[in-house]
């Protein structure tokens, strides 16, 4: 079980309160698909993903990025039990979608970059530490079904 300080909880809630989901979610997913092109194999139904420009202008990529980011709300609202909150998503990604669990970490890294760029100097080391802890718990919860 993860123990959260009041300050960590406040930092996480603050990050989410400032996020533009329709901007940050697509940017994070686009970055994953561009930087780690092997992740594109899970998005075969999304059409043309053959170049950075095609990925960045793909409305299905943008929509799914927004959905993913909204999915993190569930973790924020269930910080004391993220593992159980994400149990169904872990099963879905493992048993139905067959997503390599390392891709959750790649997306988390890309989302961290997007958030840091968006927040600028307010993404302090303390804020980042709380964020990294939070996102590591999310990645672990999503990967749980694989163990």
From TrEMBL:
<keyword id="KW-0408">Iron</keyword>
<dbReference type="GO" id="GO:0046872">
    <property type="term" value="F:metal ion binding"/>
</dbReference>
<dbReference type="InterPro" id="IPR050056">
    <property type="entry name" value="Hemoglobin_oxygen_transport"/>
</dbReference>
<dbReference type="InterPro" id="IPR002337">
    <property type="entry name" value="Hemoglobin_b"/>
</dbReference>
<keyword id="KW-0561">Oxygen transport</keyword>
<protein>
    <recommendedName>
        <fullName>Globin domain-containing protein</fullName>
    </recommendedName>
</protein>
<dbReference type="GO" id="GO:0005833">
    <property type="term" value="C:hemoglobin complex"/>
</dbReference>
<dbReference type="Pfam" id="PF00042">
    <property type="entry name" value="Globin"/>
</dbReference>
<dbReference type="GO" id="GO:0005344">
    <property type="term" value="F:oxygen carrier activity"/>
</dbReference>
<dbReference type="GO" id="GO:0042744">
    <property type="term" value="P:hydrogen peroxide catabolic process"/>
</dbReference>
<keyword id="KW-0813">Transport</keyword>
<dbReference type="GO" id="GO:0020037">
    <property type="term" value="F:heme binding"/>
</dbReference>
<dbReference type="GO" id="GO:0043177">
    <property type="term" value="F:organic acid binding"/>
</dbReference>
<keyword id="KW-0349">Heme</keyword>
<dbReference type="InterPro" id="IPR012292">
    <property type="entry name" value="Globin/Proto"/>
</dbReference>
<comment type="similarity">
    <text>Belongs to the globin family.</text>
</comment>
<dbReference type="GO" id="GO:0031720">
    <property type="term" value="F:haptoglobin binding"/>
</dbReference>
<dbReference type="GO" id="GO:0072562">
    <property type="term" value="C:blood microparticle"/>
</dbReference>
<dbReference type="GO" id="GO:0031838">
    <property type="term" value="C:haptoglobin-hemoglobin complex"/>
</dbReference>
<dbReference type="GO" id="GO:0019825">
    <property type="term" value="F:oxygen binding"/>
</dbReference>
<dbReference type="InterPro" id="IPR009050">
    <property type="entry name" value="Globin-like_sf"/>
</dbReference>
<dbReference type="InterPro" id="IPR000971">
    <property type="entry name" value="Globin"/>
</dbReference>
<feature type="domain" description="Globin">
    <location>
        <begin position="3"/>
        <end position="147"/>
    </location>
</feature>
<dbReference type="GO" id="GO:0004601">
    <property type="term" value="F:peroxidase activity"/>
</dbReference>
<keyword id="KW-0479">Metal-binding</keyword>
